[in-house]
Amino acid sequence: MADGFKTMQEVVFKTLRERIVSGTYEPGRRLIANDLAEEFDISRMPVREALTRLESTGLVELIPYKGAIVNELTAEDFVEIFHIRGVLEGLAARLACPYLTDNDLEKMRSANEEVKNMIARDDMEFQRVNRLFHSVIWSRSKSERLNTLLANLHSEASQYRRLTMIQPGRMKAVYEEHQAFLEALCARDAEKAEQCVREHYESTVRWLSEILKKDNKRKEEK
Fold first, then answer.
1. Domains in the chain, start-ordered, CATH in brackets?
2. Whole-model pTM?
């Protein structure tokens, strides 16, 4: 019974997380436990547990008597998230470097080749492939806390990641930044790998900042 409860909670959690990350559930949307329980044809308990987990990732906020609300983070929030990710994933890369296997590196190489194939098109699969690429490092850091922190920050940043990735040239830049990171890992150069990761996220912040400047300028001209 306990295993069944855990399985249903995981199904609900992953489904709701995917809907939020993909934009199916937009910021501000209410997620009502009763409605979700009816949709999934289960009791409310695993739904409530899944919503609590989503709150811990920063994707929703639980409000008394209202249920869960999909979070709407500001541009400043996302810039902060990418700065933090740069530092934490740089640490993860340094810690992971001695433990990476040839199979790990091949997974990352294959994921980055998928990114390369997406350069000429706006491909929503990027979210999945990008997470696969980075999650190899998180898991090999041998730090469960660091793994969890990075996974949560990755989910939180999903809305603005989509915004940056549709900009002309950004997909190509991500592929090249990933390649530099991979080369450092293949050379077992932990210091260089950490530097490449930090530069990758600083690059993301620069792209995001340019987008926000253009948006603000358009608003001022209206």
1. 2-70 (1.10.10.10), 75-221 (1.20.120.530)
2. 0.76
